[in-house]
Amino acid sequence: SKKDYAMEIGNEAKIAKAILSNQPISLKYSIEISREIRGKPLNKAVKFLLDVLEMKRHVPIRRFRAEMAHRKGRAISFTKTGKYPLRASKVFLGLLDQVKANADYKGLDAENLLIKHIAANQGYRKTSYQSRGRISGKKRQKKSTHLEIVVQEMK
Q1: Is residue 33 a contact partner of residue 88, using CB atoms and an 8 Å limit?
Q2: Cα separations (Å) of 68 from 82, 92, 107?
Q3: Pick from 27, 29, 88, 90: CA 20 to 30 A from residue 54's CA?
Q4: Which residue from 88, 18, 80 is spatially nearest to 49, judged by alpha carbons?
Q5: Phi-psi region of 7 (alpha: psi -120 to 50; beta: other; left: phi over 0)
Q6: Cβ proximity of 119 and 4 under 8 Å
Q7: Could you give the count of Cα atoms lying within 13 Å of 139 in the half-sphere of its Cβ?
Q8: Is the dihedral of CA 36, 76, 153, 109 positive or negative?
Q9: What does the pLDDT look like over 93-105, one tens digit per residue?
Q10: Helical ranges in 23-153 per DSSP H
Q11: What does the alpha-carbon distance between residue 54 and residue 47 come to, in Å, rounded to a whole number?
C-alpha cells in the first residue's frame, strides 16, 4: 500500500483512494484525461469517458497538440483540438470503478463523490531490442503510466 500520494491528505474518513501502476497507456493522453476530469463529480467523469469510448465526445488536447487536427463543433476546455484515446479511457474507467468500490467499502455515498486529486506519472519503461544484422540493432521502449486518484464525499 502506497502512503506518499502527490497531495496532502487530510481527514481519511471522508476520502477514498486508488492507484494503478505500470499501465500500458500513453502518459500524454493520461495527463490530458486527468486534467479534464479533475474536480468533476465521479458520475460525470464516468459518463465523459463512456462518451469518449463511443466516440461521441473527444478528449480536449491542450498541452501536447503539435500538428493535431481540430474537431467539429464548439470548443471544449478552451480548445477544439482533440483525440479519442480509447485504451487510456478504458484504464481510467477501471480506476474510477476501483475508487468507487473503495468508497463503498468505507461507507461513503458513492453517488455523491468529487474527484479531489488525480495524477498521472511516468512508469517503468520495459526495454527490448529489435535486432537488424550485426550492427544496426534498435532499442525499443514500452511505455507505462502510474495513475492515482483521491475522491471526497461532497457535502
Answers
A1: yes
A2: 8, 23, 44
A3: 27
A4: 88
A5: beta
A6: no
A7: 4
A8: negative
A9: 999 999 999 999 9
A10: 27-37, 42-53, 86-106
A11: 11
What pTM was estimated for this model as a whole? 0.89
Distance of CA 135 to the CA centre of its chain: 39
The identity of residue 111, as a single letter, is E
Strand partners, 76: 79
Helices (H) and strands (E) in the chain, counts: 3, 7
**Cβ atoms of 5 and 121 closer than 8 Å:** no
pLDDT digits (tens, 9 = 90+) for 24-61: 999 999 999 999 999 999 999 999 999 999 999 999 99
Distance CA 38, CA 24 (A): 21
Residue type, 123: G
Q: Rounded to an integer, what distance in angstroms lies between the CA atom of residue 138 and that of residue 28?
A: 24
- C-alpha span between 20 and 110 (Å, rounded): 20
Distance of CA 115 to the CA centre of its chain: 12
Does residue 137 come out as left (phi exceeding 0), alpha (psi in the -120 to 50 range) or beta? beta
User: Which segments of the chain are extended strands (E)?
Assistant: 15-23, 59-60, 82-83, 113-122, 126-130, 138-142, 145-153
